[in-house]
Design goal:
Blueprint lengths: L4 E3 L6 E7 L3 H8 L10 H6 L9 E5 L8 H9 L3 H4 L3 H6 L3 E6 L8 E3 L5 E8 L32 H27 L1
Antiparallel strand pairs: 1-5, 2-4, 2-6, 3-4
Length: about 190
């Protein structure tokens, strides 16, 4: 039996692992999503949740994980932090029968208090690995400014050839305008 569980609206990245004290037929019926939707769905009622997105709930027999084990399934398959799962390794791997994994996404970002059925036993809540967004000082050489980077120089002086070409173009334009004016006046 599990006491009430408080879920905060900001919770993310937590996997709650429950042992089910149900017969195979009862567990299969609870896991079955092929039935038309019920309001509330049996999984929601079983967890005592106000709302539940069933996409984030897994119900299966532990025997399906033969050769892998529940601990490795949580860590390798779902990214649970191994340091948090490790203290429960023996207990997780000793489980038989059916289990229910409930991921934070199942609560749709809503704050709620779960009142789980007496046949549901919380084994543990395991945070998933995530990106660490804490600021840190970068010390790698590649992250440091390059002291040898080229500093923009003062504007370069025009070459003599370019200057000569510009003068010649200006003189030709002046002569063309001058000749055109004389032709129009004399014309």
């Amino acid at each position: 039996m599990t006491t009430a569980l408080n879920i905060s609206a900001s919770e993310s990245g937590v996997i709650r692992t429950f042992a089910l004290s149900l017969t195979d037929a009862e567990a299969e019926a609870l896991a079955d999503d092929g039935n038309p939707p019920f309001d509330p769905h049996p999984q929601q009622s079983f967890l005592g949740a106000q709302s539940l997105d069933r996409k984030y709930v897994e119900i299966f027999p532990v025997a399906n994980l033969e050769g892998v084990g529940l601990t490795n399934y949580l860590v390798e398959g779902h990214g649970a932090q191994s340091v948090k799962v490790e203290p429960d390794r023996a207990r997780l791997n000793a489980l038989q029968g059916w289990v229910m994994l409930v991921f934070s996404g199942a609560f749709n970002g809503q704050s709620q208090t779960l009142q789980p059925d007496a046949r549901l036993t919380l084994i543990g809540s395991y945070p998933q690995e995530g990106t660490d967004w804490t600021p840190s000082t970068l010390t790698a050489a590649s992250a440091q400014p390059n002291p040898d980077a080229a500093v923009p120089d003062a504007p370069k002086r025009m070459s003599d050839a370019r200057m000569s070409g510009m003068v010649a173009t200006a003189v030709l334009l002046f002569l063309a305008v001058f000749v055109t004016i004389f032709v129009l006046i004399g014309g």
